[in-house]
Amino acid sequence: MVGKFERRKDTVQELTESAATHVGHIATIIAGAVRDVTREIGDWVSDGIEMREAAKKAREDEGEDKPVD
């Protein structure tokens, strides 16, 4: 027969393991979201740089040399 103390210990152990599993899954979700947001921001900045360079080249092709800020 299992004593009262051992039942409580088993319950606490199960709850702790369950909490650790769920916290791990949540951390994985958050890390993935941060990674995806960072990637999107980087792509957005790259698009802006490419557009700026294309505009500069277009001005140079037309013979204008006014810088764009």
What gyration radius follows from the Cα positions, in whole Å?
28 Å
Q: Please summarize the sheet with the most strands.
A: none
Share of helical residues? over 70%
Structural class: mainly alpha
Q: Proportion of β residues?
A: under 5%
Question: What pattern of helices and strands is seen along the backbone?
Answer: H
List low-pLDDT spans.
Answer: none
Mean pLDDT: 93
Summed up, the helix count is 1
Shape: rod-shaped
Distance between the termini: 80 Å
Total beta-strand segments = 0
Write a brief structural summary.
The protein is built from 1 helix and no strands. With 69 residues, it is mainly α.
Structural summary, described in words:
The termini are far apart. This protein is rod-shaped. The protein has a domain at 34-59. By secondary structure, it is mainly alpha-helical. 0% of the residues are buried. The protein contains 1 helix and no strands.
Annotation keywords:
69 residues; 1 helix
Secondary-structure blueprint:
Elements: H1 4-62
